[in-house]
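User: what does the whole thing look like in 3D?
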Amino acid sequence: MSNRTYEDDELRSVLAGFGIKDPTDISRYGSGHINDTFKVETGAGTRYILQRVTDAFDKDILKSNILRVTGHLKAKGVKTLEVLGYENPWRVYAFLEGYSSVDVISEPAQAELAAGAFAAFQNALADLPEPKLLPVIPRFHDTVDRIRLLDEAAAADVKGRKASVAAELAFVDARREEAARIVTMMAKGEIPERITHNDTKINNVMMAPDGSNVVIDLDTTMPGSALYDFGDMVRTSSAAAAEDEKDLSKVYSKKEYFEALVRGYLAQAKFLTEAEKENLAFSGRLITLTIGIRFLTDYLAGDTYFHTAYDGHNLVRCRTQFKMVESMEAQSAEYEAIVRRYA
Ligand code: ADP
Ligand code: GN1
Ligand code: MG
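Assistant: Here's the predicted 3D structure for the full assembly of 343 residues, as structure tokens:
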């Protein structure tokens, strides 16, 4: 998955530094786009997750945030990632035995469970003691700023790809105005800042057969909006197909999954204000547009941020996101009605 390769010796010496001296197998793991993740098997049978964190993050802020967030959750008895060692840029987590994640949902119950898990996560962090968590990446979900970065990448056109994405650039152009809605409301104080996860895609919650779950990928847990968390659930958990499905006829947002998300989220997110509830349905479209813009920007910039498996992968992902946006736009009235029914 990653564009970077590692020698076995390098990984073994990193593990030895963490006191893990008997690895029997070290292999690439999961389908995350950002960090380099390995599953480590040992002679004693204990398994670990070894990760090299991306250079795109402020690593000192990241380490401090992760230790504070996991420490707080653990102290409250909420099952979370167990940090066994952390020496930038490497860290080791206990392997979550008995839990698994999916990339695409296959039944509404999974969507309901994931939404409840992320709402409970936000609840559990609401009383994290001061100081505020710092952003590992500033303006992470700021759609206006993401469009500015897209404009810059298109102007620079370092790979000569701009001409081939005229339709995608026009798609963004047609939505510039609505892209500002949430950032503007937050700046005016009309939508509150909360501690949020900021990367609520479905494979960032691990589930066990008994229905218990663990929210993982805590890298972007920082001040944000609950709407961004809900929106990213809609992007990934209401999708009928994978994020990089090439056959766009298979790509759409499923109403029954959306409804399950709303049900699961509103059952637990009792903290939501009226303004937040009024923007829940819109947030799905907005975040999906934003992530599509980020894939397109990375495509224009030469695929430097997201891991890609083949040439053009980021453009495929962008097109999938924009198809999802269109699907949500077409169902907008029904989605608004679903939210009103549960709110
Ligand atoms: P990225 O930021 O690149 O998405 P993640 O932290 O989400 O990295 O990890 C990538 C994948 O590795 C996850 O989607 C999950 O499948 C798996 N994973 C991560 N942490 C653990 C863990 N502690 N136990 C088991 N699997 C894990
Ligand atoms: C990345 O880390 P991962 O693969 O769970 C990205 C998200 C995007 C997502 C798109 C830190 O998530 O913001 O929505 O890819 N994470 C970061 O699949 O940029
Ligand atoms: Mg992840």
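In plain terms: The radius of gyration is 20 Å. Residues 29-30, 32-35, 37, 49, 81, 93, 95-96, 101, 203-204, 216-217, 219 surround adenosine-5'-diphosphate (ligand 1) (CB under 6 Å).
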